[in-house]
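Ticket #227: bound-state structure for manganese (II) ion.
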Amino acid sequence: MLSIKQNAIFIADAHYPHHGDAFFVLLEHIERGRIKTPQLFLLGDNFDLLFGYNHYIQTFSHKAITLLQRLSHSLEIHYFEGNHDFCLKDIFTNIKVYTREQQPILFTLKEKKVALAHGDKYATGFGYNLYCSALRNKTSLKLLKPLQKPIIDHVVKRLAQKDICHTFKGFEKRVECILKYYEDVDLVIEGHFHQSRIIGKYISLPSLACQGQVGVAKEGTIVFQHL
Ligand SMILES: [Mn+2]
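RESOLUTION: The complex was predicted; output attached.
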């Protein structure tokens, strides 16, 4: 099992570039050494729309993609694909990319056993699962290609206008359902919900787009910080 290192940074749900460029700015600070970290965890949806097998989509986030590629040669990076960013293996060849299917991934944090995932895997329902696997299929992505420009332009426009920061009412109930899948771990770290809350052993990371914060590993626990 891999271990989470002291001062590791957890970035989730930056939704770049439609909801600010905090993601790019933070990566730049890391590259220039103004922010020091031995290990970077990207918990998904850091790109508002990015998937492999499609070059047009990559043009929207080109700046951050190339910066991340560059960083990956000198920094250990783990990328947990989200529902907005997936099929990334071929784009980030030097980053450890985990698909939705492979998640959660187990790490250790000091003596604790920790599960990491984007957060959309459990307690979602059959329809969502079917939609996810169809969307991540290489063939269906290729079939969409002739239509890609108008469809993508439309999706991008819609995503940019979407209000993504909400308080999840009854979040405790959802967490309770999710935790049924995590009985044998000490800590669960997920993004996806943009809640920035810790409920028992469940850590719902802040969204970089909403709260402007990230998670940082400190002395065997995770704290939320503005960097
Ligand atoms: Mn998500």
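RESOLUTION NOTES: Residues 148-161 form the longest helix (14 residues).
TICKET STATUS: resolved
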